[in-house]
Design a protein that fits this description.
The complex is a heterodimer of chains A (846) and B (487). Chain A is α/β, with parallel strands linked by helices and 846 residues long. Helices cover 40% and strands 18% of the residues of chain A. Among the domains of chain A are: 169 residues, P-loop containing nucleotide triphosphate hydrolases (Rossmann fold); 246 residues, Purple Acid Phosphatase, chain A, domain 2 (4-Layer Sandwich), CATH 3.60.21.10; 61 residues, no CATH class. In chain B, α3 packs antiparallel against α7. The N and C termini of chain B lie far apart (66 Å). The chains are: A alpha/beta (846), B alpha/beta (487). The interface between A and B is large, with 102 and 93 residues. Chain A: Pfam families: AAA_33 (PF13671), Metallophos (PF00149), PNKP_ligase (PF16542).
Chain lengths: 846, 487
């Protein structure tokens, strides 16, 4: 506690439960107002008012405190400092607050306003609502307060500030202190080093491989030790010496492991069992000086159980830590960080069974830890265990952060026989463990790199859950769903609803000069995941058997039988191999966005029930109706206008039939089936969503060239400069020519694929311009009639555009997470979001 | 949207009397406004020997879309309610029936001051409907019209002559001939049976018009051999009317995104929702077997995983020993129906507190499902694609780990005993597979082995000596004593 001439300075931790203790009238509310944010303070009077409309209604006290504790709990759970403004002079009322602080693992801090009775009484007398408060109430408060004073620390308050007298209370200031574990301002880069257990030779060689020279890194990297420096191995003093000097020199951070914790207790003279390798450490330390042992004792004493680093993105501790304990301060958190969570059972070797906390982990911060020896360090749900059993003859492993690269050195020998064989404790992935419903259910917000939080509404998530569960393929093979695409702004060109001029203009307005026009293949959207072989699929995606997947835009398998899928994958695979793309892209798998033709292959049901049905009905009705009208006309009935209209309708209906027929043809097995890839979405370790489209198309052209099976189809394209009127005119002509021959239309995309507007917002990744005849399938046979067109021109595109961008951001997110090797649930979360958004209400004709 | 009505005659009884009977002059072309567009009446031929009146309805697409306008933003019509590409402008649908009743209302009532005798007498009539939507095809058309005294010529219209392999469309070219019916009867037949045959999902008439339709059936509907079908199609159409207004449209949109029909995705609830009125004995036997197994295990807190419309829950509620019954289904629609049929909103608080319905999915682990005495998977596994079965297995046996698990599934061997089931077919369109007894036992034994359960099997329904029972049941019991206690 600091004394200055200007008054007491009271350090208060940034995340804590501050309990003001003082009699009625002692100035708690004034104190709180002066030193804390208004929202940080909850007063019992205010809560009384909330439940009873009367801040002084003592009958409402019980309910008022329920509310107070509830609000305080919510704030603490959210990691917000909370100040409780109530008399809190009775031990019982403080006990509940200490329990609350413990429940949320924050420090309970007491600030006592020990103000004389006269001052309190005078202040109360000045308040109309308290003027008639009996003097004995204040006397009782002060009696109880005095009785409490010396017990506050024993009660569990981790800091106690007692302000004696009105003057001291007036002049005191509060300073906010960071928690010891809060090192969010340090951004590294870090080299996080796993359990060493006295293996000093391995440590030196690992530090060497990481580039450290005499404990310092020339590029200013910081080493972080996850603990268990000592016990079992040959040279615990050597390890301690190295680590301590690095920490003292500011080259390293260190969190304690259970082993040094126990050794520290031994050094303090506590009675501990000399088991699990402690005996070796004690013996080795015998040879060291008293001074060194004292240094070690002091060092171990000062270790902080876990650190939050790099803006909150990284948490380092010894035994792993659930998200709710990150940055918290309590005995429970410390013991969790040191020993981890156990189920209470013991295994066949008599060792405690660890609770698989990492399986449940859903936090945004990466948790890097050790403690449990595993054969290989691997990520699970954004956590990684770096204890690769160096002392048991495994290896010593480090993780480079933020690079997320693993660096390891093998153990020189088995230094200590393990009690149980090393085994991977991380389940999931390979054995088909499904995702958790909590990953996807209900209202959600998915964080994306390119569009911030994307919200998913509950009813949309519910629909997506049904489709995903009942119809979709294995989520491990479903790392992406394509976003919807907005059409071009409505055209005013006579006879046209859509025309490329508006699309070019829109990109020009967005600051995108170079665009590519890609032919739209009227088939069905298909995403293809193709692996080099079944082993590659097993290795990367954890599935046994399939060599990839071919799925629709809602994640359903394109073909009911796996054989057809595998046949297509096989043809594609051959083309990839012959084009040399595996090695060129350094990958064993590719994810492609494609169109599968003919449309009739998948949309057969829709064709029968809707499109061909309309054609059939119109073809059946018009000959008779027209003949009847002609006969009536010849009898002199006034039907000319009607007859003309019906003739036009008959022509429109015939044009409609012709339009859908262009996208139908007969297939036999795979004969007649075409696949037009238009983007390579991802390969191992990288998202290709930002690869410029000319490079994309060059890669895809090579695929088509090397396809001997006739499966793959080229995507025709034209490059246009949206700022050059001649180039734009050429683009329009290209579209007119293509759609005039019955083509579906085209998609205009920024050449760079991923583009931002000058204000930083995402640009539409593509704008579709559909052909005049093709749109009959969408808007009905007669949409081109002038009255229909003028009605249809009043269409609203904003929601569709917004939806397209949100889905695009989620799709990009899924690909980035896949590239970063993030856990399945993280990839699935984004993919599921796309499917959910697809069920949002939007004009389906857009 | 077109049909013709012809009358044959001679000099004594000229065919042109049709003009009097219909109250429309054969020399003129007339137009009438209806709620769905303009109806035109004109006569392609009119002499003593033969007179033909034509009714043509020009639908107003704006009116159709307006009526179908949904929740889409910016006033845009919603997917489910407005179909832009639809057959309404061409086919002789329910809309034409509405036009018929508007334009020929007097004729339908048999009122004709000018020719009262002919209006009351049977006439030689011929009716032609070139594009009649007919769910049930030409055969049903005959079954509906022939008992009424018509000679029926119904010829299916092919879907697309360029793609003969697509087969026939749902339209038939219909010609009706009769000499035993009055014109009013003929019109009322059309008025009722056009919509029945149409059976469209998108049927935008209001409920009171449906009642009008029913009234038009008076006099001939009660004796009709297909009365049940006619009536039930009315009812189902009214039901679908309300369903469209009420049910969530998210699945419709997902189907649309996938170029699929809605029925391909939104099919968790079977077509025949009136199953409770004619319970199939096997379903009853199955529920009895399941409840008996749960009782024998002393289960009180029970999960019904894939509870569907809640039939089993209804059974469990009757026994107070089941204190906590949780129905889980992935289909929100099914849960809605279950909630309605269980009358959860009107149940007493104590009763209602025993039941909980929640959306869940066995493709995901779900913490909420932990710690129950028993879980029932009744006719559920066969609705999953085989490659997705390990996910369900882990979610139930690996993660939720109830003490008892009851699984029922069809016995594929028994299918040969279903006379109505074509050989090699599964019992339900959504069954992704059906297992033989050996296949089921192998799967169950592997699951039990992997997750430390014991399993025994029981037949449900008559145990055929050759092919076994229609339904097979596996009863899993957790082996780990510790977990049993923990649960």
């Amino acid at each position: 506690m600091t004394e200055t001439r200007d008054g007491r300075v009271l350090p208060v931790t940034d995340l804590s439960l501050v309990v003001l203790v003082g009699a009625s009238g002692s100035g708690k509310s004034t104190f709180a107002r002066r030193h804390f944010k208004p929202t940080e303070v909850i007063s019992s009077d205010f809560c009384r008012g909330l439940v009873s409309d009367d801040e002084n209604d003592q009958g409402a006290t019980r309910d008022a405190f329920d509310v107070l504790h509830y609000i305080a709990g919510k704030r603490l759970a959210a990691g917000r400092r909370t100040v409780v403004d109530a008399t809190s002079v009775q031990q019982d009322s403080r006990r509940r607050l200490i329990e609350l602080a413990r429940q949320y693992d924050v420090l309970p801090i007491a600030i006592v306003l020990d103000v004389p009775e006269e001052v309190c009484a005078a202040r109360n007398a000045a308040r109309t609502d308290r003027a008639d408060m009996p003097r004995r109430v204040i006397q009782r408060h002060i009696r109880e307060l005095r009785r409490s004073l010396r017990n506050l620390e024993r009660e569990g308050f981790r800091k106690v500030h007692v302000l004696r007298g009105a003057e001291e209370a007036e002049s005191a200031t509060v300073v906010t202190e960071k928690r010891f574990n809060d090192l969010t301002h340090l951004t590294g880069p870090f080299d996080i080093i796993g359990d060493i257990h006295g293996c000093s030779v391995e440590l030196e060689s690992l530090l060497g491989r990481l580039g450290y020279v005499e404990g310092a890194h020339p590029e200013g990297r910081t080493a972080v030790f996850v603990g268990d420096l000592v016990d079992r191995g040959p040279d615990s003093p050597g390890v301690l010496r190295r680590v301590m000097s690095m920490v003292e020199a500011g080259q390293a951070l260190c969190v304690p492991g259970n082993h040094e914790n126990k050794y520290g207790r031994y050094l303090k003279g506590r009675n501990v069992r000399h088991a699990h390798g402690l005996a070796e450490t004690i013996a080795q330390m015998e040879g060291e000086s008293d001074e060194f042992r004292a240094r070690v004792r002091q060092f171990l004493d000062g270790l902080v159980s876990h650190y939050v680093l790099d803006g909150g993105k990284l948490v380092v501790c010894h035994a792993g830590l659930p998200e709710k304990y990150h940055g918290r301060t309590s005995g429970r958190v410390r013991s969790h960080a040191l020993y981890g969570d156990t189920t209470g059972e013991t295994d066949e070797f008599g060792l405690p069974v660890r609770y698989p906390w990492a399986e449940d982990y859903r936090g945004r911060a990466a948790v890097v830890y050790g403690h449990t020896p595993v054969p290989e360090a691997s990520w699970l749900n954004n956590t990684i265990c770096l204890d690769t059993g160096a002392v048991f003859g495994g290896k010593l492993t480090a993780l480079r952060w933020p690079e997320r690269e693993l660096v390891d050195v093998p153990a020189e020998r088995v230094w200590y026989e393990p009690t149980r064989p090393l085994r991977t404790e991380a389940p999931g992935g390979a054995d088909g463990r499904p995702l958790d419903l909590a990953d996807v259910r209900g209202r959600r917000a998915v964080e994306t790199r390119h569009a911030g939080m994307v919200a998913v509404r509950e009813e949309n998530a519910a629909a997506a859950l049904e489709v995903m569960s009942r119809f979709a393929i294995d989520p491990r093979l479903l790392p992406y769903l394509p976003p919807t695409m907005a059409p071009t702004a409505t055209s005013e060109v006579d006879g046209y609803l859509e025309h490329p001029r508006e699309a070019f203009a829109q990109y020009a307005a967005d600051g995108v000069a170079r665009v590519v026009c890609e032919e739209k293949h009227m088939g069905s959207r298909a995403v293809v995941l193709v692996c080099r072989d079944a082993a590659a699929a097993t290795k990367r995606f954890g599935v046994e058997g399939p060599t990839g997947a071919l799925y629709t835009r809602t994640g359903r398998p394109f073909f009911d039988d796996r054989k057809t899928t595998e046949e297509i994958l096989d043809r594609l695979r051959t083309a990839v191999s012959d084009a040399g793309l595996w090695s060129e892209l350094d990958t064993d798998w590719l994810l492609l966005d494609t169109e599968l033709m003919p449309w009739s292959l998948k949309a057969a049901g829709l064709l029968r029930s809707q499109y061909a049905a309309v054609g059939a009905a119109s073809a059946a009705v018009f000959p008779g109706a027209l003949a009847a009208l002609e006969a009536a006309a010849s009898r002199g009935a006034e039907v000319t206008g009607l007859l003309d209209r019906q003739r036009e309708r008959a022509l429109d209906a015939a044009a409609f039939t012709a339009a859908y027929r262009r996208y139908c043809w007969t297939t036999d097995g795979l004969r007649g089936v075409r696949l037009a890839p238009f983007q390579i979405l991802a390969a191992e370790g990288r998202s290709l969503a930002a690869l410029p489209h000319d490079e994309q198309l060059a890669l895809l052209d090579r695929l088509v060239e090397h396809d001997g099976s006739g499966l793959l189809a080229t995507t025709r394209r034209l490059y246009v400069d949206t700022t050059d009127p001649e180039s734009v005119a050429a683009g329009v002509d290209w579209w007119l020519e293509m759609t005039g021959r019955g083509g579906e239309g085209m998609v205009v995309k920024p050449l760079t694929a991923l583009a931002h507007r000058p204000d930083g917002r995402l640009v539409q990744p593509g704008i579709k311009c559909r052909g005049r005849e093709y749109l009959r399938i969408i808007y009905g046979p007669e949409y081109t009639r002038p009255d229909n067109l003028s009605r249809l021109r009043r269409r609203f595109l904003n929601h569709k555009r917004s939806l397209a961008l949100r889905e695009y951001a989620l799709g990009l997110e899924a690909l980035s997470r896949l590239a970063d090797g993030e856990p399945l649930w993280r990839v699935h979360e984004a993919v599921f979001g796309v499917l959910a958004l697809e069920s949002e209400p939007v004009d389906p004709r857009l | 949207m077109f049909l013709t009505i012809s009358l044959n005659g001679d000099a004594a009884e000229p065919a042109t009397d049709l003009g009097y009977l219909l109250h429309k002059h054969p020399g003129k072309a007339q137009r009438f406004s209806t709620s769905y567009g303009t109806a035109h009446v004109f006569y392609p031929e009119a002499d003593d020997a033969r007179c033909t009146a034509a009714l043509l309805l020009e639908t107003d697409p704006a009116a159709l879309v307006r009526r179908g306008k949904g929740k889409g933003r910016g006033g845009a019509p919603d997917a489910a309610l407005a179909q832009y590409v639809n057959d309404r402008p061409y086919a002789a649908s329910s809309l034409l029936a509405v036009a018929l009743s508007t334009v020929f209302s007097s004729a339908m009532r048999g009122v004709c001051a000018a020719r009262p005798g002919r209006a009351a007498a049977p006439l030689p009539l011929r009716i032609e409907v070139p594009a009649l939507p007919a769910r049930g095809g030409a055969a049903l058309v005959r079954r509906l019209f022939e008992p009424l005294g018509w000679t029926v010529d119904a010829e299916p219209v092919p879907l697309d002559t360029e793609f003969p392999q697509w087969g026939d469309s749902r339209y038939v070219r219909l010609v009706l001939e009769s000499e035993t019916l009055t014109l009013a009867e003929a019109l009322r037949h059309l008025y009722v049976l056009l919509p029945v045959l149409d059976d469209a999902k998108h049927y935008w008439v209001s409920a009171d018009e449906v009642d009008k339709l029913l009234r038009a059936g008076e006099g001939w509907l009660p004796g009709h051999p297909e009365q049940r079908l006619i009536t039930s199609r009315y009812l189902s159409r009214r039901w679908s009317l309300t369903r469209q207004a009420r049910e969530a449209l998210e699945l419709v949109r997902l189907a649309e995104a996938d170029d699929s029909e809605v029925e391909a995705i939104d099919n968790a609830v079977g077509e025949e929702t009136d199953a409770e009125e004619r319970p199939t004995p096997l379903a009853v036997l199955r529920r009895e077997a399941i409840v008996a197994a749960l009782r024998a295990r002393g289960a009180t807190r029970v999960l019904d995983l894939g509870c569907g419309q809640g039939q089993l829950i209804q059974e469990l509620l009757k026994d107070v020993r089941f204190t906590e019954i949780v129905g889980v289904d992935v289909s929100v629609r099914a849960l809605g129906i279950a909630s309605r049929r269980l009358r959860l909103d009107r149940m007493g608080e104590r009763q209602a507190s025993r039941v909980q319905l929640t959306q869940g999915s066995l493709a995901y682990t779900d913490k909420r499902l932990k710690g129950y005495d028993a879980a029932v998977l009744s006719e559920v596994v066969e609705h999953l694609d085989l490659p997705r079965l390990p996910a369900l297995e882990y979610a139930v046996f690996g993660h939720a780990r109830p003490r008892t698990v009851v699984v029922t599934t069809p016995n594929a061997e028994y299918n040969v005993r279903w006379e109505s089931l074509p050989a090699g077919h599964v019992r339900h369109a959504d069954h992704r597979f059906e297992w033989t007894r050996a296949e089921f036992r192998d799967w169950a034994a592997e699951v039990a082995g992997r997750h430390d359960y014991e399993v025994e099997f029981a037949p449900v329904g008559p145990d055929d000596p050759e092919v076994g029972p229609p339904t097979q049941l596996a009863l899993f019991t957790i082996r780990t004593e510790k977990e049993a206690k923990a649960a």
